[in-house]
Amino acid sequence: MIEALEAIVADPAGAVVGLDFDGTLAPIVPDPESARIHPAGPEALARLGGLVGSLVVITGRPAATAVEYGSLAGVPGLVVLGHYGLERWEGGELSSPPPHPGLITVRAELPTLVAGIAGVGIEDKGRAVAVHTRRTASPQAAFDALAGPVAELAAETGLAVEPGKFVLELRPPGTDKGVALGDFLRERSARSVLFAGDDLGDLAAFEAVRTCGLPGVTVFSGSAELSVEADIVVDGPAGVVELLGSISDAIAARRP
Length: 256
Ligand SMILES: O=P(O)(O)OC[C@H]1O[C@H](O[C@H]2O[C@H](CO)[C@@H](O)[C@H](O)[C@H]2O)[C@H](O)[C@@H](O)[C@@H]1O
Description:
Elements: H1 3-10, E1 15-19, H2 41-49, E2 54-58, H3 63-69, E3 79-82, E4 87-90, E5 93-95, H4 102-114, E6 121-124, E7 129-132, H5 139-157, E8 160-164, E9 167-171, H6 177-187, E10 192-197, H7 203-211, E11 216-222, E12 232-235, H8 236-253
């Protein structure tokens, strides 16, 4: 067992386990509205949530969407930080800031901006808008063609561009998953941390794990779409759920 994982298992009450949603807990699918957690995910999270100090999902989704698509409402002690940390769901209560005013212009201009490429999807998430190219004939070519215009629209409206797997998101600036995770670690007085992710937006959280000064484990949920260096690389959401189960087993095995 790697040293930082050993720290989590030896002192689970001081551990923060952080998880991304899409691509980490939920398999990637063509339609964002059809994404659902891996079938074994809710049970694995409920078990781990009862064993570690803190369990947190940090996602680009609205927090309520992750709770719904992840069947997460019953996971003990779970916190869900949505919109890269702008929103917080905990114990059934959601706190969310007012929408960024730039989103009004984005909603008005995006349909024209993407009209030339068949199959581009616009996902309006309330506090952010995502442009998806996965269902176009050439997802990477469409992504590349839209990156410049989307960046110009972001500059015009005071929003930030968050690139991901065949997605360009226009979202409020000022936070990211690294900021969200770092703040959460301080809030919980964490003594160790694990974060699992699969996409570019998760790299800031990996960096937070590496620089927070605690024993930390980065877990990459691997796929054919992206390769990222991490302490542990597993095979997609099925591998993440299996890893979470093995951590629960190791903690439970040390209990008197
Ligand atoms: O932070 P996450 O929980 O990983 O959310 C990041 C984005 O995930 C979703 O898009 C991705 O998953 C879709 C469903 O599998 C897939 O169709 C798409 O190609 C992926 O980029 C979500 O739709 C976005 O809003 C999130 O920002």
